């Protein structure tokens, strides 16, 4: 069993993208951080990013079929994709929604998430530190 850390559109450009909002950590740094945390926890971790909604939905189906825990930053899809929401509704293992920025301190359209009501927990605004926090919680709440 591997925890899937799934990242949506534009997150591959972390470090380059609006650093005043998302910080200077690159996507490669984020992958390394998640893998390092997984190794510390003895938790296999697979980190992926896509700009394509259908690919994300396929990964969520994979997580549903394999009962894999998920850390999901669906990025902008969070705010408008019913299709991603419906894929999340099929997840069977615990999962955590993460946002790097504090979406409640930004534009009003970012305050609503179609996913939060389905997630076991939500971490927003703690920067990339939200990912290791989510992984630690999943390690404690997932049957191995
Ligand atoms: C984000 C917040 C979203 O509103 C935005 O569209 C993103 C990133 C975050 O991690 O803070 O792309 O999910």
UniProtKB/TrEMBL annotation:
<dbReference type="GO" id="GO:0009073">
    <property type="term" value="P:aromatic amino acid family biosynthetic process"/>
</dbReference>
<keyword id="KW-0456">Lyase</keyword>
<feature type="binding site">
    <location>
        <position position="73"/>
    </location>
    <ligand>
        <name>substrate</name>
    </ligand>
</feature>
<feature type="binding site">
    <location>
        <position position="79"/>
    </location>
    <ligand>
        <name>substrate</name>
    </ligand>
</feature>
<feature type="binding site">
    <location>
        <begin position="100"/>
        <end position="101"/>
    </location>
    <ligand>
        <name>substrate</name>
    </ligand>
</feature>
<dbReference type="InterPro" id="IPR001874">
    <property type="entry name" value="DHquinase_II"/>
</dbReference>
<keyword id="KW-0057">Aromatic amino acid biosynthesis</keyword>
<dbReference type="GO" id="GO:0008652">
    <property type="term" value="P:amino acid biosynthetic process"/>
</dbReference>
<feature type="active site" description="Proton acceptor">
    <location>
        <position position="22"/>
    </location>
</feature>
<keyword id="KW-0028">Amino-acid biosynthesis</keyword>
<feature type="binding site">
    <location>
        <position position="110"/>
    </location>
    <ligand>
        <name>substrate</name>
    </ligand>
</feature>
<comment type="function">
    <text>Catalyzes a trans-dehydration via an enolate intermediate.</text>
</comment>
<feature type="active site" description="Proton donor">
    <location>
        <position position="99"/>
    </location>
</feature>
<dbReference type="InterPro" id="IPR018509">
    <property type="entry name" value="DHquinase_II_CS"/>
</dbReference>
<comment type="subunit">
    <text>Homododecamer.</text>
</comment>
<dbReference type="GO" id="GO:0003855">
    <property type="term" value="F:3-dehydroquinate dehydratase activity"/>
</dbReference>
<dbReference type="Pfam" id="PF01220">
    <property type="entry name" value="DHquinase_II"/>
</dbReference>
<dbReference type="GO" id="GO:0009423">
    <property type="term" value="P:chorismate biosynthetic process"/>
</dbReference>
<dbReference type="GO" id="GO:0019631">
    <property type="term" value="P:quinate catabolic process"/>
</dbReference>
<feature type="binding site">
    <location>
        <position position="86"/>
    </location>
    <ligand>
        <name>substrate</name>
    </ligand>
</feature>
<comment type="pathway">
    <text>Metabolic intermediate biosynthesis; chorismate biosynthesis; chorismate from D-erythrose 4-phosphate and phosphoenolpyruvate: step 3/7.</text>
</comment>
<feature type="site" description="Transition state stabilizer">
    <location>
        <position position="17"/>
    </location>
</feature>
<dbReference type="InterPro" id="IPR036441">
    <property type="entry name" value="DHquinase_II_sf"/>
</dbReference>
<comment type="similarity">
    <text>Belongs to the type-II 3-dehydroquinase family.</text>
</comment>
<protein>
    <recommendedName>
        <fullName>3-dehydroquinate dehydratase</fullName>
        <ecNumber>4.2.1.10</ecNumber>
    </recommendedName>
</protein>
